[in-house]
Amino acid sequence: MMPDRLAVGQKRSGMRQVLPQSRGWAVAALLPIGYTRTLLPAYEKVPDTEPLPFFGYSAVAGMNGKLYVAAVKTDEVRKWHPRAFNRQKLERLVHEKQEKYPENRIIGQHAHCALDYSCPTASNLFFERWEMAIAVSPGCNARCVGCISKQEEEDLISPQDRLDFIPSVDEIVEVAKGHLESAEDAIVSFGQGCEGEPLLQWPRIGKAIKTLRQQTDRGVININTNGSNPRWLQHLYDSGLDTLRVSTISGHPETYNAYYRPLGYTFDDVKESLRRASAEGVYSSINLLSFPGLIDREREVEALLSLARDTNLRLIQLRNLNIDPEVFLPRMPDFETMGKALGMRKLIQILKQELPEVEIGNFTRPIQRQSRTAQV
């Protein structure tokens, strides 16, 4: 239920109808991971109401006595389904890991994320499988409108606590080494929702990667980043980084700047980081924050295609943007300047047709890593 919003329906004639609170609720669906929303929920806001929490609100419709959600499945969900994260077992594994490594602050941080936020990548640290989280940076060089760990505006409450320490190289290696050596489809990922921008800790990450690759060649080392500094990322490529996922909301600098509000870098820096990744043989992807009615507009589609071609992207990960539309829309450029909205299904169809070499999905892949010697 969407509080302080009035339900909007459609009459048999096709006319829009706003219902009083006594006759119905305004509702939205929160999609499971692996599904991409195609429509926003219909509602009418009551004046002077609080912003909605940071979730990805998807349209819900009632038809013939059943409820339907506007979404399309865009990836395999087995590894991300709640059934894969048994709570009782997780609590036991967290306790065991914390007893084994009582001084490692990364384990303490991700125990909090796993148990209090049900974070899948934090949980995988304890299940010792798949993609595992390592948060390293409390600072950030962007001021994202929808940041989930730190908000500047008083009426916007972040759903997570920001990391408040910088781990040592030894702490990073202690957590990551065992996972890389023994976990199924092992991925160690820097850059998590509970932190700022990991690239600000590039010397520490680079040293950790070199140390890890001196001890094991198994698994994939990944970074989720805003890609703000190509030189810093080059250091990580040279250290042995395997995969890169750069967050963006658009391939167009105007839209990018409106959402990320970057500090000390430009969208050209982001593109150069992706170009260098391709040149160095690092598997590159983007984490495309998806908001129906924005990223499917003609200008945005063309800009996205151009970005993918210019940087030789391998994967586009669609990510439902978690934000109240009433918070997001006033901060974005005028949609009327972006051409017609084609629809999310059409966007996905165009991406598949125009970029046949680019995979469309939602998750980081456990790629077959190349033999790339770290530079000392």
The named CATH superfamily of the largest domain: Aldolase class I
CATH architecture of the largest domain: Alpha-Beta Barrel
CATH class category name of the largest domain? Alpha Beta
Shape: globular
Please indicate the percent range of residues in DSSP E strands (runs of 2 or more): 15-25%
Number of domains: 2
First-residue to last-residue Cα separation:
55 Å
Cofactor: [4Fe-4S] cluster
Domain Radical SAM core: 126-357
Pfam family, one: Radical_SAM
GO molecular function, one term: catalytic activity
Pick out its properties.
4 iron, 4 sulfur cluster binding, TIM Barrel, alpha/beta, 11 helices, three-stranded antiparallel beta sheet, 376 residues, 33% helix, S-adenosyl-L-methionine, 2 domains
At a glance:
This is Radical SAM protein. InterPro entries: Aldolase_TIM, Elp3/MiaA/NifB-like_rSAM, Organic_radical-activating, rSAM, rSAM_sf. Helix content is 33%, strand content 19%.
Blueprint (SSEs and pairs):
Blueprint: E1 5-10, E2 16-18, E3 29-30, E4 35-37, E5 43-45, E6 57-58, E7 60-63, E8 66-69, E9 71-73, H1 87-100, H2 105-117, H3 120-127, E10 129-134, H4 169-182, E11 184-190, H5 202-215, E12 220-225, H6 230-239, E13 243-248, H7 253-260, H8 267-279, E14 283-290, H9 298-311, E15 315-320, H10 325-328, H11 344-354, E16 359-361
Parallel strand pairs: 10-11, 11-12, 12-13, 13-14, 14-15, 15-16
Antiparallel strand pairs: 1-2, 1-5, 3-6, 4-9, 7-8
